[in-house]
Amino acid sequence: MIAVCLEPYRRYADFSGRTSRRDFWLYQLGYVLFLCMLGLCDAAASAVIGEDLAEGVFVTAFFVFIAGSALPRIALTVRRLHDRGQGGTTYLWTLIPYVGWIVWIILGCRESDRVENGWGPGPDDDPELMKLFA
Predict the structure, then answer these.
(1) Phi, psi (degrees; rounded to nearest 5) at 11
(2) Are 75 and 12 in contact (CB under 8 A)?
(3) Higher pLDDT, 123 or 126
(4) Where are the domains of the chain?
(5) Which alpha helices (H) appear in the chain, and where do they start and end?
(6) Crossing angle of helices 99-109/21-49, nearest 10°?
(7) Considering 8, 31, 41, 49, which has the largest number of Cβ atoms within 10 A of its Cβ?
(8) Is 70 exceeded by the pLDDT of residue 91?
(9) In this structure, are residues 88 and 56 in contact, taking their beta carbons and an 8 Å threshold?
(10) If pLDDT is split at 50, 70 and 90, which confidence band does 21 have?
(11) Residue 123 — φ and ψ, nearest 5°?
(12) For residue 131, what pLDDT is reported?
């Protein structure tokens, strides 16, 4: 899971290609778990070193992590859209309040195109991986 969570950071500005549904959601899970871990560390540090100092440190850590993850998350989502045969401009739907998140979840949950499309072969076409699920 750690390798899947780090892959978007290695391909942080790569808007070409495809990303499987599994990799997309495992990254999202890792992202949320890391934010929760930061929150728990903030709560624990507040009790030990004082609320003011801990809040400053962890608010900065939250900001750095979220800002540093913005471009990799956008690139990952665009590659996921490519996996469905849709262009990256479909990502603009997420800018609409409330509706955008619903669209993002629906598009992220839909099954991958099994055939090669304009963005390359399917990400699940790895023969070794497919043996595990056969």
Answers:
(1) -110, 40
(2) yes
(3) 123
(4) 2-132
(5) 2-10, 21-49, 51-83, 99-109, 127-132
(6) 130
(7) 8
(8) yes
(9) no
(10) confident
(11) -70, -20
(12) 53
